[in-house]
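Hi L.,

You mentioned the student needs an example of a multi-chain input paired with its predicted structure. This one should do, with 614 residues in total across all chains.
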Amino acid sequence: MAVTKPSYREIDQAVLRTLETPGFKYWLWIGFLLLLIVWGALCWTRQIYEGLGVTGLRQPTMWAVYITNFVFWVGIAHSGTLISAILYLFRSRWRTAVYRCAETMTAFAVMTAGLFPMIHLGRVWFLYWLLPYPNQRALQPNFRSPLVWDAFAVSTYLTVSIVFLFMGLIPDVANAREASKGWRRIFYSIVSLGWQGTDEQWRHYSMLYLLLAGLATPLVLSVHSVVSWDFAMAQLPGWHSTIFAPYFVAGAIFSGCALVLTLLIPMRRWLRLEELVTLWHMDNLAKIVLFTSLIVSYSYATESFMVWYTHDPFEMMTFHVRYINYGFWIMVFCNCLAPLPLFSGRIRRNMPAVWVISIFVNIGMWFERFVIIAGSLSSNFVPSQWGPFQISVTEFSITLGSFAWFLMLFSLFTKFLPIVSMTELKEGVGWLRQALREDSAEAA
Amino acid sequence: MSEVMVIGAFADEEECIEAVHALAHAGYRKPRVFSPIPCAKLLAALGHTKSPVRAIVLCGGIIGALSGFALTIGTSLYWPHYVGGKPIVSLTPFVIIAFELMILFGALSGLTGFFGLVRFPRLESAEGFLPSFSGDRFGIAVACTDADRSKVETLLRNAGAEEVVRESVA
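Structure written out for the whole complex:
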């Protein structure tokens, strides 16, 4: 007997139900996040007023928590492009239910990352000096500097990610427009720009979507490579390494997919999306987390091996200091050991277990960046300069505020725009039906 | 002679494709087709060629890459900045800027080109559109004379249309 469930209409109903007017608990959650954001903003205001002395930044560790947050959030963004663009080009069957969530995360994570160079700048009002424009002070960015490459790479990534997200949303928002009334209908009419799914519209749309996926794929690989060159181009022991680009890209996809799981697992339950975002989808995401965890573990081993093999005394010393630092062992435990249970298919389909592992990975990947950035700087070429880094309340609060900012944007999106792509789920409805059939057979 | 728009709604994609073939056989070569999902077979049945968005993205990408080189080489020569004996025109790092601008211009020109080709934003509804075409129905809208109306309606019904309605053409 042919399986006909879910039908197109059932997919629409399930996704459009997520756009119903949110209740009190939702606004309470948004209010809580707003409080954290306000606290973070107040701490930033104090930092602007008093100067960077309120942070833990001291010589020689002048890059620490803010740059760690920047790299962390840019890394988080990478899973979205992997799932939405790279897996689209590979015609992956399971991406349809989860790609919108990952893509949304990408856009908001890059927006969050973009805050940190500004916060780290101290005198944020001179931000416009970074822009290449003719001026009487003869100031022009040095295009041989990796920091300028980074500015170009991250701003291009933000723009292309938003364009890609927006393109995917157009047919879904047009669908939501037909089903809604009042201000929502006006809002969806504006966002969908008059989309009606004519053959002429699909003809150009499909081609552009494919081309954007083709453009986003090398872009995503370039962005974290460029971020890694912020470090690798310097001579500092612990930074100056040729493996940084692939190592950072793998780490970025690892942390990004873990955060997709962290958000999706509660979201699919609260929004009652288990029939669309099935265990099969989560299983595949967990496999990517496991696979990238193995690449990251291999990178850690290679990095240490290269230090030992070269016998460079400065590199050896930096790594000796790193090995006696708690941050290193947190990252090894969280990134190399904690994901190993995902080899078991039963654990990959156990959502509480996967959620806990994904949290470990998020923590581990933050520490990885912190160990590389602050750890390497704090033990540089000159032992007389060495000094440990102490995180300040200001840095902790701004970091907390950035998580709240990201979660608030994501939470607002889930209630006002379709967080699961109806169009792509309908396009691959056969695979969804097969996944549901397999899931129910397994449960039985 | 007055014109009408005959609209058929189909639950199934294959039936819609069959209707497109039947209409083409009867001489109606360019009906307007609505679909809730992208469907390559439907576009092929309508005889659509590949979208010119490709050429627009290519041009945008080339302009972006050239702009990247022009910006980096031009400003470096105009404001020379000597650091560590590195050449003023250092092509290797400039490739990175050119690459990023190639992607940026390619994507933005593609979006702009797409908007132009489909005339976005559209304020008026396309003739023959029914709300269900955004959700779970495929639709075919055929402009025909009043005299041909029943022939088109029969064609659509025979192909499997579950609903056939008509609209007068403005």
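You could point out the following to them. The two ends of chain A are 19 Å apart (CA to CA). The longest helix of chain A spans residues 146-179.

Best wishes,
N.
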